[in-house]
Each structure stands twice: as structure tokens, then as C-alpha cells.
Task: structure prediction
Amino acid sequence: MCGLAGIALRTGLAPSAATVDALTQALAHRGPDGAGHHVAGSVALAHTRLAIIDLATGDQPLFAGAAALVANGEVYNYRELREQNQLHCATGSDCEPPLHLWRRDGLAFTDGLRGMYAFALHDRASRQVVLARDPFGIKPLYMAEVGGGVAFASEPQALVAAGLVRPRVRREALAELLQIQFTTGAETIFEGVSRVLPGETLSIADGAVAERRRRAALPEGGPEDIGLDAALDRFDDAFQESVALHQRSDVPYGMFLSGGTDSAAVLAMMARLNGEPVTAFTAGFDVPGAADERAAAAAAARGAGARHVTVDVDEAMVWRHLPEIVACMDDPAADYAIIPTWFLARRAREEVKVVLSGEGGDEILGGYGRYRAAMRPWWMGGKAPRSRGSFDRVEDVLRAPLTGWRDGTASAEGAAFTPGRTRLQAAQALDVADWLPNDLLVKLDRCLMAHGVEGRVPFLDNGVATAAFRLPDALKVQGHTGKWLLRQWLAKNFPAAEPFKPKQGFTVPIGAWIGGVGERLGPLVAAQAGVAEIARPDRVAALFRNAAGEKHRGFAAWHLLFYALWHRRHVEGRRPEGDAFEFLAAR
Result:
């Protein structure tokens, strides 16, 4: 788990040392345990390391023959890759086997990998740079065309900090951010900065992209003919293998525990596989009536014999640290779950460097309520996911209607409906394509890496996806209950999780918090350059005063607050100093 960056220029040009240093410094928080670089001719690779596996000899870049590699993430099946392919590795690093597989297999070198990864590889013999990203997009990788070539980095802010791109907001992406809280597809909110897509491997030759290939996260085809008992056995085998692989670490690890089924399943399997009590971290809030999962999480922890650590998040903490929290989201996702995730990561770092969490369980096993709506035809009340945006019911706040905000989602919907898939499978595939990598996984990556913690997601494993995605719809959704198979598995293996209780969701009382300080906060948000450009100041102030009322107003106010803080940091370039009020008021 690290930060990587680099630049690949045309033949005859050379990257400047200052640029390489700036990229490295901008990613120092991702790798506090060391740094390294490789410069050869027109190519430079930079790396900052968070040491997790092979603490003694795992520094990067890694070298084999004429090839050099830097990586962000973990290749969990590195031991099996060594043995099966008879690889002779100079280190114990999990990221060295892919380097040898590149020399043998070329652009297909990632096909056998299980893990979360972003790679940058320079092969002097073939005169090319290769970038690759894991199929689920767990680990980030961005690129931009620059003068004379291509630059890339684990975070867009590094490209900005190094002076390689200017932080100009792309209007179409801003519309998406305000309406659905994240941005879709390959293009980011920054003009000229794009994502290496999940599962994509591309080659750069003489300063330009020469070839691309894509590895799918999900298996093709419709539902299989399999019964409940056989499906439970198959899922148990795949999930146990995945969690065992995700626990490979040379440093202490724990897990994030909510009151839901996904993290409860991770806890149950970790308890099965560990001889010592698992350390589980849970966040809770101080607002009366807010959805608080601490009691349910505590019951699950007791049932698993886990050591349970609670993190109490109060309103004062949120306002004090919100500029820092939003600042870490350079690829913006206005998901209010960034708040508890950031505080959980800060607390977890006092004891561990690795945490497992339940992201991906809803998407792989069919948990969201929107999936049930997507399964119905339109004449029976069915509707497409994300068919309504946060500002559709908020009148006159914005200066102009938001247009084109659903174009990226519509494009992904078309790609999700491959032959044989059901409506449910297509809705799941849509989320795996955009919602997961551009919201949930960005949240997990940035909030944890801000504190030097690695996040691992065992539901997002090709073995688990193969076992679960093609299950019959009835083993995912029955009536108003999603994740039917997972609930049945928990009832059999971990009844302390109360798997058939209604899904509550991971909610944050952000509307109540904003409404309580709306008189003071609204005018500050309205006065920000980024917000004043798109919204009417008087209507913004009114929206904030009433944010604690209807839920949709709270969401809209939160999205504007997030954007105000984000714009101030990542477009205007201000350091996140002071609390939210001081940061917004500073001149």
C-alpha cells in the first residue's frame, strides 16, 4: 500500500528532478515508511511506501532484467504465483511476481493476480511504460497528457502539486457531483485528468498511449441453476479463501465493524481463521434519534469474541476536522460516510496498519433497496438507479439547471446489460462499474491513507464474485429482503449478527448538524467562489437554515458544503487550516 507517480516523455526529453521530487512529496502521506525512484532516459517512476509485507527487502522500485516496477496495493496470491510459475524472486515482496510475469506474458501479466493494485512499470528493452489497475478499481491511478508525454499518479492532487496540470473544474463532472455525489467514467472533475479504468492495462510508447486492454471484474452470463445449500457451501469456500488471503500481512491488522451484515460476515470469518481475538472498530454519533450502530456492533463483537473499540464522533469533532477530511478527497465523492471513516482510520492507526471492511457486499450479493426497484418493470413502479438527483427537489438554489448529469450513468447502464443478465445483475454491474470505484472505494482509500492505514475489502475478490454474482436472483433478493444468501450464511454461521433484522444503512446525521449551525454556515458557503459561481447566495443561506427539515434539503446542503470546502482546497489551493468556519471565512 503506497503512492506511485511518474512521467513518460517522448524520446529525447528528460523528466526534471524537481518534478519527480514534487510528485513524491505530494504522495508522502500514502507512504510514510520510505521513498524511492527510478529515472532512465525519458521515463521516471516515483514511489512512497507504507510497509505491510516484506518489511526488510520490499522497498521499491523493484527490478528484474531491464524492467522496473512501482506498485500501490497488495497482490494477495503472491506465494501461489511464485510456486505455480516457478518464479525466482530476489525479495519477499508481494509485488515482485507481477514484474516477472510481465517479462513472460506482456500485457496479460495481471490475468492471474488476486488483489488490489495499481502498477507502473518501465521496460527499457521494449521502450514502453505500462500502467495497470485491479478489476474492481480498489486502488486508484490517474493520468494526464502533459507537454511531451504522459504523467500519472495515485492521486490527481499530486499532478496538480507538481505543476503538471492546472486545477480547472469540468462542468459535466460538477453536475454529477452535485446530483449523485460522485463522478463517473474515465474523466475526472479536473480537466485533462483521467482515470485508468478498473481492470485496465495500457502501454505508453514514446510519450503516448499505444495499447489498452481490459480485465472484467464480474463473470459474464445470467443466473446459474444452483440451490440454496450448494450456493451456501460454494460461498463459504470462496469467502473463507478470500478472507484468509486478505489477512496476509507482516504488521497488525483489525477490521471496521458496523451493525450491518457485510462487516458482520467479515468479522465471523476472521474469528474463524484467527486464534487471537479480532480487533474491531466501530463509529457512533451523539445526535438523539440518529441511526447508531454501536449496540448492534457490540453484540456482534461479543458473539465473535472480538475486542471491540468504539469511536464516538460528536458534532464539535466534525466541524473541527471537516476541512482536513474533505481535503483528502481530491477525487471528490461527497459521501457523508467519509466523516466516520476518517475518524475510524485515525483511531485504528494507533494499533494497526491494516483493516478489513465490508465494502462490496451489497454490490456482489444484491443488498441495496434500489436493486429491488430496478428488478421491477416501469409499469410496476420500477425505476433505474440514480434516476433522481439531489437538487431535483430543491428549487431556485442553483443559477441554472444541472444538465447532462446522468449521461455517464446511462452509458454505464448500457454496458451493464450484457447478454443473459437479469435486471438485478445489470443494476449490480452498474454499481460495480462506477459507484464502487468512484465513491465507496475512493472514500476508503483516501480516508485511510490520510492516516497511513491500508484498507482491504474481501468481498471484492474474483473468487467471491465468481461464486456469488451469477446466483439466481431469488438467492439474492426475496420480497423486501436483499442479500438473502449472506443472511442465510450468517444465520447458519454467526446468528449473533441477527441477519434478518431490517437493513438500517450507514447513516450520518449531517442534516441535523448543518441545520443547527445553518444561520452561521450558510452565508459562508454562499460566499465561496466555487459556490457563488453556480448558486444564488440568498437561496443557499435559506437552504442551510432549513437543512434539518426534509431529508433532500439536508443532502443538497451537504453537497454544497462539501463542494465549497473541496473547491477552496483543490482549486484555490488553500491549506486546510482551522475549523470549517475559520477555513471558509479566511481571506
About this structure: The chain is about 40% helix and 15% strand. The chain has a mean pLDDT of 95. Residues 365 and 486 are 7 Å apart (CA to CA). The two ends are 37 Å apart (CA to CA).
